[in-house]
Each structure stands twice: as structure tokens, then as C-alpha cells.
Amino acid sequence: MPTQPILSSRPARVGAIVVTVAALLSGASTLPASAASPSSVTHATTKPTVVLVHGAWADSSSWNAVIRRLIHDGYPVTTFATPLQSLSGDSSSLRDLLASISGPVVLVGHSYGGAVITDAAAGSSQVKALVYLDAFAPDEGEPAIALAGPDSALNLPGVLSPVPLGAPTPTTELFVDQKAFVKYFANDLPRWRGQVLAATQRPVTFAALTEPSTAPAWKTIPSWYEIGTIDKVLPPAVQRSMANRAGAHISTVRSGHLPMVSAPKAVTSLIEQAARS
Question: Pick from 144, 137, 149, 150: which is nearest to 250 by CA?
Fold first, then answer.
């Protein structure tokens, strides 16, 4: 019977766990040899950390399929839970996160997250590449929402719902009508998936969308831009105009406004291309 050998090995396992935890709590710089494989050490020292920044009406779970692929390929990954309160405040919080990371960073922004990374990375020597995914890439003085263009679904009546009701103030929270979310934001996803994303959306404040951007990081940091060719929120022509202005490496993918959900393979490929640059 194998029961006795299995039971007798448990104290050794528990001991190894205790030693590892104790080393972490004491601030020891090394771990037992079994705690890290040679391959993980190599990845950590040779590949930049990928920091993923979600946009409005979303949360970090929208990156799940991309995260799995990046980790599989040996990239350290961190997500930024965008506060969605103000562009200056969101960018400042992201800068604080970047300061806690050792080594080079590839900074990835989706939608409004593109405006956040544009401001946060300005003047950074740590960020080696910017990646924009169906994202705002504002120049100095431009609010994100002003770049959406007249053909954006954001300009259609009833798409955005303010809370509280009435004329918006800087702190007014803006939600997307759930039916409009499925129709315009998740137009290339199964209906049930769009409905889940619509129900779990996080609102963005009026101030965040209307606050002018500061000096743009894309003027000094190499950038990559992936255009979703059937995006109804940020039309492809608008995306291409911003990407050209930024001098970005441009690629396209047949996706709506949520390519990290509907086309994670293409998104991951672009991020890794930027990371290898």
C-alpha cells in the first residue's frame, strides 16, 4: 500500500514551505534551490515586465486570456487596476506602480488606458515600449473623449448613462447602457459574453474622460498600435490617425473594441513583438 510513504513525506514538504515563507518574511534575498526553476530565473532577468492597463467600463479580468499566454511564454506580468477617477490621478497611481517594479517595462493600454499610459510614462527611462490597443493616444492638451470622433458610438443618444442623473459634474459616474454595450462594445463576442461584461462594467467619471492630457510619452518612447477593424467605439480611421501621429508600428486585427477578449492571440503577439524590440 502507498499510504505510509505518502504520509511520511508530509513533514519534509511542510518544512520546505515553512523555510520558504520564513525567507520571504525576513527579506532574505535568496530562496531554497527548489523554490525557483532555472527557467523562471532566466525569464525574470531577460524579459521585461508587461504592465497591462485596462480602460473605462472594464476591470483587470479583461486581460485574463492575454495574461495566460504571456506567462506561458515566460513574461512577468502585472495588471493595473485603473481607478477611473481622473486622468491625472490615474496616471499618478500608475507611475507609483511602475516605481515598484525592477527592470524594464512594456506598458500596454486599452481604450482610455491608452491616455493613462501616455501621461504616466512621459519622461520614463524604465518604459521601453508603449502598446496601444484600440486606444486613445492623446497629444498634450487633448481630452480622451474629444478624440473619439463623430462616428463613435459614444456620441449616440442613450449610450452613456450618468449617475446621478442630470447635468454631469466632474465626479459624475458614467455607465454604458447594457444593451448598447452588447451592441457596440462587444459586437464580435457571443451575446452572453457581452451581457456579462456589460453587467460587470466599472464606471468612469466625467472628469477622467474630459481632463486634458499632459506631455505625451509616445514622443520619446517607441510605440506599437493595434487597430480593431470593426471597432464601433473608437472607429478604425480615428485609431489610425492617432497611431500615425505617434509614429507607431501599426498592425490590424478583425475585432471590435475588446481585442484582448476576442483576439487575445493577436494582442499577445503584438505585446511580445514590442518586448523583443
Answer: 137
Q: What is the pLDDT of residues 122-141, one digit of tens each?
A: 999 999 999 999 999 999 99
| CATH number of the domain within which 158 lies | 3.40.50.1820
Tell me the three cell numbers of residue 224. 506599437
> Of all helices (H) and strands (E), which one includes residue 94?
helix 87-99
User: Do the beta carbons of residue 56 and residue 62 sit within 8 Å?
Assistant: no
Q: Is 30 left (phi over 0), alpha (psi -120 to 50) or beta?
A: beta
What pTM was computed for the model? 0.84
| Single-letter amino acid, residue 132 | Y
Q: Is residue 239 part of a domain?
A: yes
74: alpha, beta or left, given left = phi > 0 and alpha = psi -120 to 50? left
Is 3 part of a structural domain of the chain? no
